[in-house]
Write a structure and sequence with these properties.
It contains six helices and seven strands, in the order E-H-H-E-E-E-E-E-E-H-H-H-H. It is α+β, with helices and mostly antiparallel strands. It folds into two domains: 146 residues, no CATH class; 79 residues, Pleckstrin-homology domain (PH domain)/Phosphotyrosine-binding domain (PTB) (PH-domain like). The strands form two sheets. Strands 1-2-3-4 form a four-stranded antiparallel beta sheet, with no helix packed on it. Strand 5 and strand 6 form a beta hairpin. The N and C termini lie far apart (74 Å).
Amino acid sequence: MSQEISSMRTIFYKFVEPLVGVLIIVPLLFGGFFPSDIPITIKFIFIAAGIGSTIAMLIFSWPLKKVTLEGETLLVSDYFQDTMVPISNINVVEESHAFQRRRIILHLKEPCQFGKRIIFIPKPKFDSSILEGYVAAKPLNVVNKRKPLPEALQAYWPYLIGVAVFPTLVTIGTEVYKLPFDYFVVPLFVFSILAAWPCFSGKASYAFWIVAMICFMVGGVFAALLTYILNPVTG
């Protein structure tokens, strides 16, 4: 007898929410929502908020799977392909509450088609104890854990350089060299994805992305100050 243990809203969390974020951020990036005379610092604030929320949704939602319990086997799907995972292959069942949503992370002994972890949002009344009889009673290997923020910053701080200096690069480019903001759209995407990669790859805690956003905001404040300095010179 089959029993779907992942939330019925998984397809919404995985595809619809990120799509809505993209539909919001694209007009922001290309200036569709901004009057022509709006200060570039204000653009930074809206763009940072849009990119930050969209990437956060992608980090959270893209790994999600649809999981169905079929006897002593799990049918796991990412809506493009399916794979069967014996429950006996589960090493550790981990729970987290990232972004205020309960998530179940199944760490496997041997990798399946989707890797060594299966992540899903369970149904509200799902009890992970139904899997306990098949799960090894030993602590999770440290290698599989996300690094806490201090360790993540020590290991991945170079990933933050791009988002920190980007506002200053834009300010110099637009104020000194009179380049249109559209020239900086691709670098913005690249720097944002780079800063999010430690979280997206499961190596750093989600707090790392919050620090990345703070770096972007601090860079924006510095860029605003630089604008006031450059305006009398370039004006």
